[in-house]
Structures are given as structure tokens and as C-alpha cells.
Specification:
By secondary structure, the chain is of the alpha+beta class. The chain has 9 helices and 6 strands, in the order ααααααβββααβββα. The strands form 2 sheets. It has a 4-stranded antiparallel sheet with strand order 3-4-5-6. A hairpin with a 2-residue loop joins β5 and β6. The longest helix is centred in the last third of the chain and has 31 residues.
Length: about 300
């Protein structure tokens, strides 16, 4: 039976509903903490400019978009992402209005919302490490509000944007599960060369290039077996790669191979990266990717 891709909906309504629920719950808890304990989660800043609190609140608020998308398989498309952006901006504005209405319901004499918002924004003050409260920021308070909005919206978009980039099976409408198959050596052991003669440095550089070329050759052979649908030979090659993974992990450059596969139809995607390690610094760069037939994926199943 031929597998046919299902057309993805332009807008994922369940995803939007799930995100809206977590947004409302998060803002309600944030308001309760402010009233009950005087703790303004949105007002936490790092170095007076980093809206750490707003970002964390936004991250919790937007978690529902990612949870529902991952759990149901509804993919977060571009249109959905734009709607999420608009909803989170409206949620931030709605939270300000709800706070105003809650104060008004207590009988406190308040001006209209516009003047009220202007007053409390201009009255924003920062507290230093010693607990000393500074002077009102005045018009600069609107800059703080802008940073707060950016932090909240940015945090809310982080999870759905990350999930949107995950491998996805269009046929089954499910996100693929990704696992690392192993690593291939692509360099020789690191040596200190800065005090060595130029000829030794050149020889070392040549050894590195040769080792990378050898790793690339094995890598290309692995991809060729997968592309040809030679499941038994591919499974054998993966087992050999796993045997070399421990040693490859000790080298400054290695090729990392991943397999993403649909849990339902077993269609897969083989991908690889070049990983370079220098001290504590680790960098990765894309190397290759290729579709994998279900029988090739099944050959790796235990």
C-alpha cells in the first residue's frame, strides 16, 4: 500500500487552545503570587536590562503550544506561529487590563486605564542588591515595559519554535523520534604544536586532513548503503560505527550520525554533523542528510 502524505492544516487549533490554557493559568498564578506574597515574577531583571522573570513566565505560558503539538502530532506551521505571536502580545495586554480591573473592583478610586497605565509605568523603580529603591524611571519606564513584553513573548515562542524544527513525518502526521547512531573518527589525537618546528606543524595538519578524509569516506559509504536500501549491510556498518564511537569521542573532531524515524510508518531521515571540540568549547556544523526507507530503519530495531 502506497503511503500518501496528509495535507497539514493551515492553523493547528488544538495547539492554539493548549497554549491559551497554559498562558491563562500562568498569568493567573503570577498575579496570585504578586497579590499574596508581593512577588512580581515579571519584574525580575538581570543587570537592569535582561527581563529574566518575563522570559521565564513566558516560557511557562507558551509551554502548552509545544506540549499539545508534540503529544498530538499537530505540526506548528508558519501561520500558527504568527497567531501564537499575536496571542501572546494580547495576553500580555490582557494581563495589564485584568490587573487594573481587579484593583478597580476593590473600590479604589482609579483613573481610566490609559492614564493609570502611564502612571504605573513611569513609576517603575529598581531595587539594588542592598534593598535600596531608586527613583522612578519616568519615560524610561516604557523601555522597561518593552523589554518585559519582548521577554514574555520570546519565552513563549521558544518551545513552539524549537518543536517546529524537529523532523516530522508528513505521511502519518507525527513527529519523528531521533537517536544518535554513533560517531566516526575524523581527526588524530590533539597535540600541542605551537612550539614545534614548521615541518612538524605541516605534517600534523596533513595528518588531520587525512583523518578527516578517511572519516568522510566511511560516512559517505554509510549514507550510500542507507540510500540504496541495503538494510543488512547498513545495520552491519552501524554496528562497526558503534564500536568506534568511544574512541572517536576522545578526538577533537568527529562525525556524529543521527537517525530520525516515524514511530508509526518507520520512514526515517539520516543526518550527520561535524563536531569539533577545543577545550570546553564545542561547535557543530551540518554535514549531510538523506531519507531512509522503513526496512532500513527496521533493520536497526532490537
Amino acid at each position: 500500500m502506497e503511503l500518501v502524505a496528509r495535507p497539514a492544516p493551515a492553523v493547528s487549533l488544538p495547539v492554539l487552545v493548549g497554549g491559551a490554557l497554559t498562558t491563562v493559568l500562568t498569568l493567573m498564578v503570577s498575579y496570585w503570587l504578586s497579590v499574596r506574597f508581593g512577588f512580581n515574577a515579571m519584574g525580575l531583571y538581570g543587570w537592569y536590562v535582561l527581563p529574566i522573570g518575563a522570559f521565564l513566565v513566558g516560557l511557562l505560558a507558551g509551554s502548552g503550544y509545544g506540549i499539545v503539538s508534540w503529544g498530538t502530532g499537530f505540526r506548528i506551521g508558519r501561520n500558527t506561529l504568527w497567531i501564537v505571536l499575536a496571542l501572546q502580545i494580547l495576553a500580555y495586554a490582557g494581563a495589564q487590563v485584568a490587573e487594573y480591573q481587579a484593583l478597580a473592583s476593590t473600590g479604589m478610586p482609579l483613573p481610566a486605564f490609559g492614564p493609570y497605565f502611564d502612571v504605573i509605568t513611569r513609576d517603575i523603580r529598581f531595587e539594588d542588591d542592598e534593598g535600596v529603591v531608586g527613583q522612578p524611571l519616568g519615560a524610561w519606564g516604557y523601555g522597561v515595559r518593552g523589554l518585559e513584553l519582548l521577554g514574555f513573548v520570546g519565552g513563549a515562542l521558544l518551545i513552539p519554535t524549537g518543536i517546529r524544527s524537529k523532523p516530522y513525518c508528513e505521511t502519518c502526521g507525527r513527529y519523528m523520534k531521533t537517536r544518535q547512531l554513533g560517531m566516526l573518527p575524523a581527526s588524530v589525537k590533539e597535540r600541542r604544536m605551537w612550539r614545534k618546528p614548521d615541518d612538524e606543524k605541516a605534517a600534523y595538519a596533513a595528518d588531520q586532513e587525512t583523518a578527516f578524509a578517511q572519516g568522510q569516506t566511511v560516512h559517505d559509504g554509510l549514507f550510500a548503503l542507507a540510500g540504496a536500501g541495503n538494510a543488512p549491510a547498513f545495520a552491519d556498518a552501524v554496528r562497526l560505527m558503534k564500536d568506534s564511537t568511544k574512541d572517536a569521542g576522545k578526538l577533537p573532531t568527529r562525525l556524529v550520525v543521527h537517525l530520525s524515524a516515524c514511530p508509526t510508518c518507520r520512514l526515517g531521515m539520516l543526518s550527520s554533523q561535524v563536531m569539533r571540540v577545543q577545550g570546553r568549547h564545542v561547535s557543530t556544523s551540518f554535514l549531510a542528510s538523506a531519507p531512509v526507507a522503513p526496512e532500513v530503519v527496521r533493520a536497526l530495531d532490537p
